[in-house]
Amino acid sequence: MPNVKYQKGDTVMGRWPGSNLYYEVKVLRFDTKTQLYTVIYKDGTELELKEQDIQRVAGFRTRSSSRSPGRRRSRSRSPGRTTRRSSSRTTVAAVAAPSATDSSPSVRKDVKMRDSLEIGLSPLTPEVKTDTEAGKSQGRYNLRRRKDEGDSKPSEPKAAQLEEKEVKPAAAPAAPLSTPLDFGGKIGAYIWLLFLPAWVLFLLLQVNLKDPSLANFPPPLPPLDAFWDPQAVGFVILWLLFQALLYILPVGKLSEGVPLRSGERLKYRTNGFFAVVVSAVAVAAAVDLGVDLTYIHSHFLQLALASFLISVLLSIYLYVRSRYVRQDQLALGGNSGNVVYDFFKGRELNPRIRDFDLKFFFEMRPGLIGWCLINFAFALAEMKHQDLEAPSYAMILVNLFQLLYVLDGLWNEEAILTTMDLMHNGFGFMLAFGDLVWVPFTYSLQAYYLVSHPNPLNLAALAAIVVLNLVGFYIFRKSNSEKNAFRRNPSDPKLSHLTRIPTATGKSLLVSGWWGVVRHPNYLGDLIMALAWSLPCGFSHILPWYYMIYFIILLVHRDARDMSECRRKYGSAWDEYCRAVCYRIIPRVY
Fold this sequence. Notes:
Layout: E1 11-15, E2 22-31, E3 36-41, E4 46-49, E5 54-56, E6 90-93, E7 107-108, E8 127-130, H1 131-136, H2 185-207, H3 230-248, E9 253-256, E10 267-270, H4 272-288, H5 295-298, H6 300-322, H7 339-345, E11 352-353, E12 356-357, H8 358-364, H9 366-386, H10 393-411, H11 420-423, H12 429-442, H13 445-452, H14 459-488, E13 500-502, E14 508-510, H15 521-534, H16 546-570, H17 572-580
Antiparallel strand pairs: 1-2, 1-5, 2-3, 3-4, 4-7, 6-8, 9-10, 11-12, 13-14
């Protein structure tokens, strides 16, 4: 075993790469292969340092308080300001390191710079004090040798023997403006902008065929007038306005979101369950008054196109308004500087019109509740097309399973405030298109398929599918509840029994309950439910299994994004978590 000078847990002074500044750090470990020490600063930043860049705390002299009071000076605490008077001796306080986003290859990018840099008061700025103030402070270290102290002893660290001259602290690096690009980067953004609308069009044309087999690819294009219907546009706009009215009503709880980079916590009106109940009453009243909801089935393509146009207009508005907001209001993931990528990913994190939060509203209301409305309309269309007195068992299962999913999401609407979309993703075309087009018009394909392709179910198959869905729902709800409670208040006494792994950011990783079985138990529950939604449609065609196939691809991709983000954010703690929880989504499989 090599002789390791500094042990795990030692508090030492570490030199910041590229400067003569030393800061108080704690040794985490020593890598015998690279001969580097991993240390952690007070703000949570982790670096790998060579042995010569580390000194013991005892080697740094603390300033004496014998200075004349007449020589006191007021000093700015900004890192960009430097003293002009060599007679005013200053000492640099070892309070914290510069940002973990430094370009040095040895920096682990585990911690994001706080937005106090925007007002010039960085929490990572070395504090400058006058000699008299430094003498009164404990734990402050002088990085320069005083002439009246004589020559340093041989045992004193070299870096503490700086000449008596003016020292200019290195300015802290700017906070990161964007995270690494995903979804294929800039080229990928062009591809997705073209592919997503084309794919939805293909699905809607294919499912409308009598035989939606891939052997009939490509589906024939209908005449142009089949794509446009002013009444469909009016119907979509009316639906959006109705849901917006329900959202702004002073009904329901005002919930606080997670702290933003600026430290601010936004408030959200979480009355989604109220909105879906009122919507159901309104739809029932409309049917009782003679409104023919099978219009949704017969004009499905026109309604999808109307929703697509509105999502494009909304995305343009969101991008334009994002050019006029403060830097700290932008999402790190959509601020690359490339217009097309930022338009697709979304630049502004929480776009609001007064207290009306656009991302939160579109994420949970018109698309999700609209999905249930579409399914109900397809049940009515099935009865009409197949001359039935009641919907088939398969149609009832699909409607009930997906309605349960939506009701659960709106009942626990507050939980979405801790999801990736709300916390990290900007609001742009990706989410606008997903909320208004992708969710209501592709997630309802199973019900659309059953309108023209009946699939009788016996009681045994019926019971097995119901049990399967309930198992998936239980795993999904239980794991999400554990995650949401832990994220909101990890110190809650009710959660004291949970096993956790501390990280350098001050947060902890949960390794108890379902989160100790697989890394994404909520994804596991989602996949089991997706299977239960597809089984009522039978195995005659692959199209009703689209949701299952799509969800596997989506969740595997999302898992990869989570892995990359968490490794960047939590560093070695994430590696420890992955060793503790080996499987990602499916136990003993993946």
